[in-house]
Design brief:
Structural class: mainly alpha
Number of domains: 1
Strand content: under 5%
Oligomer: single chain
Shape: globular
Helix content: 40-55%
Number of helices: 7
């Protein structure tokens, strides 16, 4: 998932324009809905604002925009089934942002 997010937001690709945060996350939300990526990991990525930590460190300000986290989660989960990251403590422990400053990538 992190690799997809980085690829969507990368501004150094001559063959495509970099997506804003909200555009990239909406694509990931539909991928989670269709089970191309793990929906629970996507929920943690959103709820823990891991995307924002990456953006703050690596994306130019013109790619930062308003992210409607609840709307993204509703794409993936029925309204009454949106998980909280506290319900997924085992998954939460597995997610780390590893040395973003030196690697410029997320590891999930």
């Amino acid at each position: 998932m992190a690799d997809i997010f980085e690829a969507l937001t990368a501004s150094d690709r001559p063959y495509k324009k970099a997506k804003t945060l909200s555009e990239a996350l909406k694509i990931l939300a539909f991928m989670a809905k269709d089970k191309h990526i793990d929906p629970n990991l996507f929920a943690i990525f959103i709820q823990r604002q891991i995307y924002q930590k990456y953006a703050d460190d690596f994306l130019p300000t013109e790619q930062h925009d308003t992210v409607d986290e609840l709307a993204l989660l509703k794409i993936v989960f029925p309204e009454d089934k949106v998980p909280s990251h506290t319900k997924h403590s085992d998954l939460s422990k597995a997610i780390t942002v590893v040395d973003l400053c030196s690697t410029s990538s997320l590891v999930i």
